[in-house]
Amino acid sequence: MFVSPCIPAGTIINDQDYEHSSIVATVRKLFCPDTEPLTWREAQAATFENVLTLEGDDIRNDVVDLPNPVATGGIDISEMVAVPMLREPTDLSVLMARAMKYSLDQLGLKPPGDPAEIRDSAEAVEIPYTSST
């Protein structure tokens, strides 16, 4: 879904595939036209400039007083932000951890401490691996 006051009301586009990279590609094309795409994926992405067709006095102003979003379900977001959730590992993460341990063993490297205590990629990057031989 694409929402903008620069799109005519009732517009439906079903003849073009867009993706997340389309946003970056559109911003680059409209605001930084002399720059190169950041990635191959962005270079291949369809852009929205042919969708944003209203300009000047034609830009829509028919939706002005939208209600504030309402959170439902009684979730206290402040608690979620203050305390990081520890989740059970997925099958993929378990397989990746086993593959990493096998690779480290094959290379004769031993991480200090317990690798199971690593909670994020920032911690993993800072681990000084030492030779186990």
Topology:
Layout: H1 20-31, H2 40-44, H3 77-82, H4 91-107, E1 109-110, H5 121-125, E2 130-131
Characteristic terms for this protein:
single chain; 133 residues; mainly alpha; 2 domains; two-stranded antiparallel ribbon; 2 strands; 34% helix; elongated
In short:
The protein is 34% helix and 3% strand. It is mainly alpha-helical. Strands 1-2 form a two-stranded antiparallel ribbon.
Structure description:
This protein has 133 residues and is mostly helical. The protein is 34% helix and 3% strand. A two-stranded antiparallel sheet has the order 1-2. The chain starts with 19 loop residues before the first helix and ends with a strand.
* Tally of individual helices: 5
Q: Outline the biggest β-sheet.
A: 2 strands, antiparallel
Q: What is the CA–CA distance across the termini? A: 57 Å
SSE order, one letter for each helix or strand: HHHHEHE
Proportion of strand residues: under 5%
What would you report as the Rg, rounded to the nearest angstrom?
24 Å
Strand order of the largest sheet: 1-2
Q: Spans with pLDDT under 50 lasting ≥5 residues? A: none
Number of domains: 2
Shape: elongated
Structural class by helix and strand composition:
mainly alpha
Number of strands: 2
Could you report the average pLDDT, rounded to the nearest whole number? 75
Helix content percent band: 25-40%
